[in-house]
Amino acid sequence: MTRPARHRRTLISAVSLAALVALWETALRVGWLPSNLVPLPSQIPGVLWAEVLDGIWLDVVLSSLSHYSIGLVIGSVLGIAVGMAAALLPRFDAAHSWLARLLRPIPPLAWIPFAIIWFGVTETAAAFIISIGVFWINYFTSYSAVRAIDDGYYEVARAFGQGGFSARLAKISLPAAAPGILGGLRAGLGQGWMTVVAAELFGIPGIGQRMMEASGLLATDVVVVYMLTIAALYALFDFLFMRIQRRVLRWQQ
Amino acid sequence: MAAMNDASAPVLTARGVRLGFADDVVLDDIDLEVAPREFVAMVGASGVGKSTLLRAFAGLLAPLRGDVHLSTAEASASRAWSMVFQAPRLFPWRRVRANVELGLEGLGLSRDERRARAMESLSLVGLEELAERWPRTLSGGQQQRVGIARALAVRPRVLFMDEPFSALDALTRQRLQSELTELRQRSDAAIVFVTHDIEEAVLLADRVVVLAKPDKAAPATVREIVTIDLPLARRREQSGFREHMQRLEQHIGVAATPEETMS
Fold first, then answer.
1. What is the ipTM of this complex?
2. The model scores a pTM over 0.95
3. Which residue of A has its CA nearest to B83?
């Protein structure tokens, strides 16, 4: 896209978002929409400020981030490790492939009963649920990324004395599969964040729990504050991750 | 320490080598000796098993029968053999210099020593200025030069080359052919060079091994070994060149169909 075209695109996006918010505000003010069902957009900044001043905002965000990061790290590391091992070791692949096929279609939220039985309504339970969804995404992307590596690279490695398992892993499998693995990590980043809120709706402290509390009091403005918080935090992680990704994969551009 | 090698003893000896699968033997009864610093080309119709034989010489494939002996690495921090492939097969995630360093890793060299050896090798192929570039920014000819530098960096006793110039355009190919003749004189490696191009074989090699099938159903074997006794830095128009080519064409042509011979 040329530069003026990109600017025009940004302008159109911004204008239409602003128009939607304006329409929403007007609809409530003139009574087209019942004010007990949706909050006034103009109230949102004030409500956010109040939540921040109370210290609630930071508390719930930090506690969600803590489940999220623990679940994300465990799920990603295990997913990449098991996925790569399956792609590199045919026996291991054969040994676990039926189990993987059986467990894979079970959505992370279906593990909530077991999470609560095993860990109680605790942070560990939330981290466990988050890690499951993240695991499968990373497992499958790493597996296919490693399987797709051109065999010619392994022959080069053997021809230059790098044919041992660890040399091949470090010098070929990991770097050659990096674009796929990083793509999986990024998808897991999004999937994990969506699971956080769902896991917390069951009473584990965090953004989800605060939203449930607010909805019980019909405080729709508070609900919207946290919906926007979720969106903004995700956008931030994704942006930061993309910068890292671009740096790691600079040999591709 | 590497075993002592007699200076004139062959660097590669193959005796009665059979290759392929138990029920589908591709090559049989291959005998060959390659002397130090000798340049041996292997020619033959496509599908005759030239690249397979090269891999067996290198130890990348095990023969069904017979044996291959490669002399051990002589100099310190060197390897017995290395290879240049048809496609350069550079690692796109490594810069040019790091690609050249690949074979030097694990030889007990320090980072600075590896770097110096890689730069020396890159200067042999005239690419030291591209050392910090990514492979994707190089032309096909430059990439193949890096492939040659990577192979020379380990100071091999035998350099295997598997149709290294066949994917390049004619002009680049000619330039690299004459560069290889110069490189030979600055390297101690013997070269075993697979090509389907008879002219290329006559241009570069001391001896040309013709691989062919005695008849359609039989596995291929060494039909003839032709010594090219023309002085180096050869030209296609010099006297004797055509005669060598014609002799090789006759040897290849007997059992192969015409379109297989000409490529």
1. 0.86
2. no
3. A159
